[in-house]
Amino acid sequence: MARGRMINKAICADKKINNLSNDTSRLAFTWLVIHADKEGRTHGDPAMVRSMLFPRRDDVTVEQVESYITEWAVRGLIVRYESNDDLWIWFPNFEKNQLGLRKEREPDSIIPPLTEDCRIIDGTCTEDCLLKGREGKGISALNDSATPDVVLPGEAIDPPRTKPASKDNGRNKIRGDLEQYFAKISNTPLPKRETDGQRKAAAKRWWNPLADILEMTDWNLTQARSLVTMAYKQMKKDDLTISAPQSILSVAISLHADGRVGANGKRTIRV
User: Does residue 33 sit in the same domain as residue 128?
Assistant: First the structure.
């Protein structure tokens, strides 16, 4: 790996960078670029990223770094993927901003490339974008199995998963109330659940993400509604399309990690 990387001065005016949640997130993203290999890839495990970027900072936690990585993906700045039982980050615009990059003078990358066998954790790209980040065959297998109506940057392409039934049937009612609330504020029709395929799609894009949001708020419906509202407003502000609760999940995780929802469900300011 080279001893340094180019940081394009255009980063100062970049809207995606300036819209990050705070200066630590902006600084961390900028510093992480210098750790990228010649293919624009680096470590994606939040504990590793924290140790690389802030070895002398005790006030920056692994949880904070995780929230930063999530919002970078939401903004389309990175793609995080899983390969060889580890997490990795790829900068899609790395080569464009590395003027004079001489790959032949650097050792081969030891970080696995983004292939069909990898699982995208955070972030999505167009086909042209992904073709730059991987080696070998095409990438149709990444998207053909479950292409959503709208793919949001930061929305993972995962196989359908089924959560075990809750012992507390009251939680299903809470989740149903939150589902109705999301449909109302987003003006989105509730999903159909008539066939097995529809039920799996609804679980993936509606039921499971709502459960994840409720878990973050300890199944407090007031807090969960507040978090859903804030995530929805943030995405609308950024002119991003919302088609299901899965669309807002990454933003909700970032907002919650940043401590913007108080115990009473009201918006707070973290100092």
Answer: yes
- CA-based end-to-end distance of the chain: 37
Task: Give me Rg for the CA atoms of the chain.
Answer: 19
What 3-state class would DSSP assign to 37? coil
**Cα(57)–Cα(105) distance, rounded to whole angstroms?**
33
- Cβ within 8 Å of residue 261, ≥6 positions away: 217, 223, 226, 227, 230, 255, 267, 268
Query: Are 103 and 209 within one domain?
Result: no
Q: Whole-angstrom Cα distance, residue 47 to residue 89?
A: 13
Q: What is the identity of the amino acid at 165? A: A
- 4-38: per-residue pLDDT in tens? 666 767 778 888 889 898 999 999 998 998 888 88
State the residue for tokens 């407090």: 220
Q: Which residue has the tokens 């049937």?
A: 169
- Looking only at the bridges linking them, the beta strands covering 86-90 and 119-122 are unpaired
The position carrying tokens 């669309």 is: 247
Give exposure, 146-179, as e/b (b: 16+ Cβ within 10 Å): eebeebbbbbbbeeeeeeeeeeeeeeeebbeebb
Per the structure, the complete domain to which residue 192 belongs is given by 169-257
Is 267 in contact with 74 (CB distance < 8 Å)?
Answer: no
Q: Which residues pair with 122 in a beta bridge?
A: 80
Residue 263 lies in a domain: no
What predicted TM-score, i.e. pTM, was given to this entire model?
A: 0.48
